[in-house]
Amino acid sequence: MNTKTIHKNREVRFVLGLAGLACALAVSTMASASEPRSGYEYLQQESREMQDDDFLNPGMQSVDAGAELFNQPGNSGESCGSCHGEDGARLDPQRIAMYPVYDEKLKKPLTLQQRILVEWEERLGNKPLKYDSKEALELEVFVRHLAKGEKVNVQTSGPMEPAYKKGKEIYHTRSGQLDMACTNCHDVYPGQKIRANTLSQGQSNGFPAYRLSNGKINGLQSRFNQCYRQFRAEEMPPGNNDYVALEVYVNARGNGLPIEAPAVRY
Questions:
Q1: What's this model's pTM, rounded to 2 decimal places?
Q2: Are 20 and 66 in a shared domain?
């Protein structure tokens, strides 16, 4: 065997070795992504400490503001607290953890925020609040905080199945100038760096969450738009049917994770 052939064989073995390593890493990454892991696990220690301490967690300001709105009388003379207790004690944490849920009257899934907005308008007689507006998010984070520690438990069968399947399709559909889908970051590369940010699995158990990057409480569907903006895709208005379906799927893929709202995220 001449020297040229030996070198060629070495090159082939080297390339095959790299390919094997890449496949092993891909399989390992996909395997780790198959088990839900909260974004909390990808935070730096300083950010974890901020989230864990109610006095340090800046999202708690929105919880307190939501508590005030919860007990603010509407045009009907009643408040949310009139039915659910001043501190929301008559709300069921397990029920909160199931949202989005199917509404038999409206014949469609409703997110937790949509349920709150329906009650705000129909029962309290108030003017409608815009989805993911400051007040709507304050109410949502107050209510979801009541279920902190409860395991996410979104139903995916029965009347919820079409929305779940639609959300899954959206999650895996490439779009935008960068031709990317949610799955490209959150299923393939969790734990990898993108600039200063560590990619997570994109779990939603901490939402509404306080984002250090923009200094405010962020709704899950507004977060969808932030991602779409990053890969230069067309944004959609929060509260639309496609985003509700996407929220159904994203919440369901985190079934079993504890609710952390308000989480602290980058």
A1: 0.87
A2: no
